[in-house]
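Holo model, S-adenosylmethionine. Inputs:
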Amino acid sequence: MPEGRKTGTGSRILQKRRIKTVSEENVPADYTEMDFLEAKRFDKKVKENFMPAVVSTVKQIIEDYGVLEGVCVDVGCGTAVFAIELCRHSKLKIYALEKEKAIYEVARMNIEKERLTDKIIPVLGNAHELPFENEFANFLISRGSYHCWEDKVRVFKEIYRVLKKGGIGFVGGGFGRYVTEEELNRMKSLRDHSLKEDAKAYSSPDKLREVIYKANISNFHIVHDKAGLWAEIKK
Ligand SMILES: C[S@@+](CC[C@H](N)C(=O)[O-])C[C@H]1O[C@@H](n2cnc3c(N)ncnc32)[C@H](O)[C@@H]1O
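Output:
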């Protein structure tokens, strides 16, 4: 066999290996496809890779809004890793809402394992039709779910409906201002690899602004910095 062909085959094998390594490192992001085992793998990957962002964002929230109390809704809570951290640093009663049954089951198990069942209530439901009455929540958080919403305007209308007067919504995605540069670069690269095209949602402040205007919300401001891309909504 000519030398060139050997090298070609070798490089194809190497390329395959490289592709496999990258996809193994990715955090699963096809939420709708997940069965229980895949949801457990998603949970493990989030805990292994994104804890600095969770800790940093909760720290930022408590610093900006004070020790929060009352009712909180976490929209698209995943396996409740963020809700658990927020609960530990606040006096909130958190309704952790998740659309995917398998992910919701893992969230329920995490909440039980942390003995927080009196403070965090897992809810199986869809952000497009929040299963809460008007003016239910003092605080609403949604981190890293925005890119999934098919009708973003509708979800923001739901978020506004559910907020109490005087309530605050903090919606978007990112890593919080307290991560180190090194942590930020590692997590950002992993997120972008995992979400692929969807990651662009978190670098488009104009689109986020447009969606919120269309939802007829006027009292908001967009934060786009090291902490990520966030909309702070005040009702
Ligand atoms: C990247 S995870 C973020 C989890 C968590 N918020 C965090 O900060 O770690 C996004 C989650 O949003 C959920 N999600 C997507 N669309 C949703 C919707 N329409 N209603 C409720 N949850 C949704 C997904 O199933 C997934 O669990």
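The two ends are 72 Å apart (CA to CA). The beta strands are 69-75, 91-98, 120-124, 137-143, 163-173, 220-225, 228-234.
Archived with the compound record.
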